[in-house]
Amino acid sequence: MLKLMRKIPGGMLIVPMIIAMVFTNIFPNALHIGGMTEATFTGKGSQAMIGILCFISGANIDIKSIPKVIKKMGSLMLVRAIIGVLLNIIYVKLFGFEGILGIPALAVMSTTCISAALYLALTLDYGSDLDVAGFSFAGLLANPGIMILLYSLGSEGELDVMTIVSSLIPLIVGLIVGNLDKEFASFIHPATGMLMPFLGFTFGAGINILDALKQSLNGVLLTLPIYFISLPAMILFERKVLKTNGVASFALAAVGAIALSLPQLLQDIDPVVAANASALTSQMAFLTIFTSILTPILLSKYCKKMGIEKTN
Q1: pLDDT in tens, 229-254
Q2: Is residue 292 part of a domain?
Q3: How many domains does the chain have?
Q4: CATH code (residue 160)
Q5: DSSP for 81-132?
């Protein structure tokens, strides 16, 4: 199993995610028995694991490298966010918040929500130390608070500031601890790879395959702005402006599982979302599955073409 996961780009996350999807769709209640089992193998444990990964990532960031990390990741995420907001505004102007073909505006905005976990898995395979260090910053576009803020730029949604603050605390604490004790930072660093399969499993356990397949056509349509607008723009920016190889841009392309939570978070304040919550969740599920599988494949082909060797 380990050899298989290492052969597949992002396989340490993707393979367990697929196994969990299949298992939990055949036996939907098998893991929901409470206690440690439910906390370890269902979505209930994902936030804790992401927090730990943010802490480890922060601990292994040298304070001197922070400006470089912010320059690269901050600018790339800004490009992704600006494109997402502009596409959403244009979509709303043309079709309203209800959208067209059963695709509400929130679904379009949700394509900006990245998979921070897959970003980490792919940069561990192909990226530089600077790319890996950007994991915690990449998590900002995997943060529901940030996504709600971006969506609210074209609607009346409100931002929960504490959601953003709580997502940054593990990073900041890890940054402080790791720079005060370099030996401790080195000690916990290997845990990143160890946690990836568990995190992938918790993501997969929350995805209903049948519901996702029902929205497959809309899901495919939603991938078009990702792979034909956002990704090319980020690669162009990264290679021409930042002068790096484009791996980070590909790693930021997949839609994160956190997108599945957006309809539930917004349905109380947005009547359009409330009316389409079930369909939106299914569309987000398909997007998560499809982009999580396609993005590593595209990155692998890109790296072969560019002569970028796998580092892990």
Answers
A1: 999 999 999 999 989 889 999 999 98
A2: yes
A3: 1
A4: 1.20.1530.20
A5: HHHHHHHHHHHHHHHTTT-BTTB-HHHHHHTT-B-HHHHHHHHHHH--HHHH
